[in-house]
Design brief:
Blueprint: H1 2-13, H2 17-39, H3 57-65, H4 71-87, H5 90-97, H6 101-137, H7 149-173, H8 177-197, H9 202-205, H10 209-217, H11 233-257
């Protein structure tokens, strides 16, 4: 199994996809982190407080949580990890070398977990490079091991990893690479966003992968639609684990049962 996982990672890391998506993800996250840091502590035109000041724990919690917004990039990586096999017909050779398709899918899923964790760590390192100096220069106390910060960090790692598995499962269902990517983007930026932010839909939205991820980090941000309806952290963790199992089963069963041609 270790050899199969290594082979799956080699397939990814010998392409330009992994570093292109990594750079895009870091640019996207960096822009969000930089914007929030720039406006931190600035009052709105009505005199109300906006983003918490850089010397507060609330600012640190908010900035650490921004990495969750990068899930679309790890999802695309997961989609391509699966659909590229069919697009370039490497799946035939893969199954000839390893006839037991279930082992191949398991290796791909494990490789996806490794990729998700690596992308998550890169996101957290970028966030740390901004938030730590910003807090120190503002005279605040940097908190890394309390006030819910470790839970938020783990939530970012879990979300980015889960969406790799989501991408693999989606790619197994929709073999057309462009179609799968478009479908995934529509889900993340349209459907999931509406379910998570519109109060009448939040009862459903909190059970989606994105809603569960937001519940796990549990940073309540006023979006202008009122306070978000979130799951307890333990329930959010259980939901994310459940989705990981579902996506893995979808990828496994679809690949095992379908004709590869």
């Amino acid at each position: 199994m270790i050899a199969l996982v290594r082979a799956e990672l080699q397939k990814l890391f010998t392409t330009r996809l992994w570093w292109a998506m990594l750079i895009a993800m870091l640019l996207y996250t960096g822009a969000n982190v930089g914007l929030i840091t720039a406006v931190a502590g600035v009052e709105t035109a009505q005199g109300a407080s906006g983003v918490p000041g850089r010397d507060t724990i609330h600012f640190q919690q908010l900035v650490w949580s921004l990495g969750v917004g990068a899930t679309v990039f790890t999802m695309i990586v997961g989609i391509v990890m699966m659909t590229a096999e069919y697009r370039y017909q490497t799946v035939t050779g893969t199954f000839l070398v390893t006839p037991r398709r279930g082992r191949v899918v398991a290796a791909k899923l494990l490789a996806g977990v490794v990729v998700g964790v690596l992308y998550g760590l890169a996101t957290l390192l970028l966030t740390a490079a901004v938030v730590i100096p910003a807090v120190m220069l503002s005279g605040g106390e940097v908190v890394l091991f309390g006030e819910g910060v470790p839970r938020i960090m783990l939530g970012v790692l879990a979300a980015l990893t889960l969406y790799v598995l989501f991408g693999i499962g989606l790619g197994a269902l929709i073999r057309n690479q462009v179609g799968a990517i478009i479908g995934g983007i529509v889900w993340v930026f349209l459907i999931e966003a509406l379910l998570a932010n519109l109060p009448p839909l939040q009862t459903v939205g909190k059970w989606t992968p994105g809603g569960a991820a937001n519940s796990l980090i549990n940073v309540r941000i006023d979006t202008g639609f009122g306070e978000a309806d979130l799951l307890p952290a333990w329930a959010a963790a259980a939901v994310l684990i459940g989705y990981a199992v579902i996506f893995s089963l979808v990828a496994s069963q679809t690949t095992v049962r379908r004709d590869i041609t």
